[in-house]
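To start, an entry.
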Amino acid sequence: MPENLKREISIVYDLLFGYTDKMKGLRNEIDIGKFKLPVDAALVIKINNYPLLTSEISEFRKEEIQQNILNKLNSLADKFSEDILSAAIEADMLVLFYSTEFLKSDDIKEELISYGKYIKKGLEEDSEYKYSIGLGRSYDNLKGLIFSYKEALEVCKNCYFREGNSVMYIDDMVNFSNDIPIFISEMEIKLIDKITSSNLENIDYYFLEIVNNILEQKLDPNTIKVKILDLIYRIIEEINKVSEGNEEAVYELSSHMREILQSKREKEMLKYIHKVGDKLFSLLRKNEGESSTKRSINQALNYIENNYKKDISLKTVAKEVGLSLYYFSHLFKEEIGVSFVSYLNEFRIKKAKELLGNSKLNIAEISFEVGYNDPNYFTRVFKEYENLTPSEFRTKLKNKPEF
């Protein structure tokens, strides 16, 4: 490391990592806004699977792993510029300050993303660790470098949260500080109208579509959570307008709301959003009355009767009746007394018994006729319900005395 970097590096450490007492005198001596450094941009790295891979190793070994990663990072970055500075922010997060003088084209964003991908690929080579990388903008002074660090940190957290993007530049993310308006979309208006008019057909679909639209926006994780919780609160308000006595049930949602806020990854957050949606719309359907429930179940039974020969599933029928997978599964068992799969199998076996007694189709043909694509599987299911194979059942029918 060049000697002339030592003082500047000390200043960067003190500013970024909170050694404020040490900085008081220095702030009076220099203009931070004009103070220039050989490094001008920040890159933050998160080790995605660090907790999983280090849960059972010693603190000493963890420090050794972190130092090895830092050394590898320095080696990769040093190929582009000698003016670099790296440090550990947390056990699973690192920062690299570097000079962007190596950039050759005017398309800074694309070059920086390529640089981030190069760092990521190099770190992951011959390693079991996986990384998310956030890139801040380039600035020409110390104050700007602090902004670059904060930008890279937020982008890296966004990268980790979404899981799909492993390298992201600050311009690819809209920050909450940009005063993102929480507006009511056309889809949300339709959802509210459905609640107020007690028209619950496909209401789960509308809710999840709104959530997906929010996720598709280039927002940071905290903004996403704020917008989704705002949507949930508005749904709760509308439910309270059209029905009474929901206070206790709504209170039970508070734990899931906290879990949404505390979620570190998008998939984890979606799991709790699904739970909240199911509980909210269960309340609505309960208030709508038994007729709606009966109507949905009768619609499902009719669909099974008309389509049992096809490759249908719980998901297929749930979508057909406009209910979420989880709610429909619970509702079906509650109303019919058996699970969807058990009912479908029983219905198909009943039809197979009729064909075994009244047709000349062979076992494989009957299997396909009642919706089983694998005759061997059909035979196993049939025996499970009748304690006889289809062939044994047919023989028994033929040998049955006539009166």
User: Anything to note?
Assistant: The longest strand covers residues 41-47. The chain is about 65% helix and 5% strand. Strands lie at 41-47, 84-90, 93-98, 131-135, 167-169. Residues 19-30, 176-183 have pLDDT under 50 and may be disordered.
